[in-house]
Amino acid sequence: MTQRQATPSRFDIEAHGSTLVVRIDGGPLQLFGVDVALQLEALVERVDKDPDVRAVVFASTHPQRFMSHADVKWLQQGGADYVARQKTGAPPPVPSEGYVGLDRLHAIFLRMNSIGVVFVAALEGQALGLGAEFAWACDLRVMADTDAFIGQPEVLLGIMPGGGGSQRLTRLVGSHRSLVAILDGKPFTPAQALELGAVDAVVPKADVVARAIELAHHLGKRDKAAVGAIKRSVYFGGSLPLPDGIKLEAKEFLTLNVSENGQTLMLAYQRRTAELGELPLYAPGGYDAALRAGQVG
After folding, report:
1. At 6, is the pLDDT very low, low, confident or very high (cuts 50, 70, 90)?
2. What is the architecture of the domain spanning 10-220?
3. What strands lie across the sheet with 126-128, from one edge to the other?
4. DSSP character for 31?
5. What does the alpha-carbon distance between residue 127 and residue 249 come to, in Å, rounded to a whole number?
6. Where do the domains of the chain lie?
7. What is the mean predicted confidence (pLDDT) over 33-56?
8. Over the stretch 43-52, which tens digit does the pLDDT of each residue have?
9. What span, in angstroms and rounded, lies between the C-alpha atoms of 196 and 170?
10. Predicted TM-score (pTM) of this structure
């Protein structure tokens, strides 16, 4: 995996309140290459630090493709360079600022899984390989009901998923279904992806981005620190042995329990209980109002 690809990519970013809609231009073939990785890294860094950004929707500028797959030259050249060094005994070069290898790529996706921002993939078209792995790294996926598919075809090139596909897809649909899909290389149709739980909604193509923004707005109303803690507990704690997962959950809970916002909302809940003579979540309309607002009012 090497330096910047020949055709630079571009992220077109629009703010919709606390949600950013990011349309990715991966060039005429809509490839996920070094430029996409570097711009994604910078975006994740930005939204993590910005308290006013609560969600990000990823879409595409390409009329048929969310993200085709990885730039195969990027992958192949990295392997060829490694083989050449093994033959000559040359040490690996010092990575430049623009170098993106597997470790850096995985770090980007793992950071997406660990921060208090909700990421939604708006799959208006096809996504294969690293394009699918990018979607799996998002928290939610909305898929078009026509002209769309998603999957891991790497076995057809004599390789396997390298961007987390064998791990994240397995956690979404289960070990056996993931194994068969990756061994076969055939992508999921929208109906299959929805049935298996690989995507969260299937809607008409014209409605994909709007539905993704709706989901982003809804979940983005929740406390940002709480969202991050929940994501870490589920994504990372869910893969640990149960006692270790419980310890991670406890650590995240205790951090939120002493936070200013957590204390404020819990005290407000107690005051509201005294005023109503009933628990606010059980009062008529109370739960629905809290879900809409993202907190108990």
Report:
1. very low
2. Alpha-Beta Complex (3.90)
3. 65-67, 126-128, 150-151
4. -
5. 33
6. 10-220, 224-293
7. 96
8. 999 999 999 9
9. 11
10. 0.92
3-state SS, one letter per residue, for 117-173: CEEEEEECCEEECHHHHHHHHCCEEEEECCCCCEECCHHHHCCCCCCCHHHHHHHHH
- Residue 192 carries which side chain, given as an amino acid letter? Q
Nearest CA among 176, 174, 100, 169 for reference residue 135: 169
Can you read off the two tokens belonging to residue 73?
Answer: 């030259």
The one-letter code for the residue type at 232 is R
Rounded alpha-carbon distances, angstroms, from residue 73 to 47, 65, 81, 94, 109: 30, 19, 12, 21, 21
Question: Residue 269: CB partners within 8 Å, gap ≥ 6?
Answer: 280, 296
3-class secondary structure, 100: coil
Count other Cβ atoms within 10 Å, centred on residue 11. Answer: 17
**If DSSP states are collapsed to H, E and C, what string results for 188-229?**
ECHHHHHHHCCCCEEECHHHHHHHHHHHHHHHHCCCHHHHHH
Residue 67 scores a pLDDT above 80 = yes
How far apart, in whole angstroms, are the C-alpha atoms of residue 290 and residue 222? 10
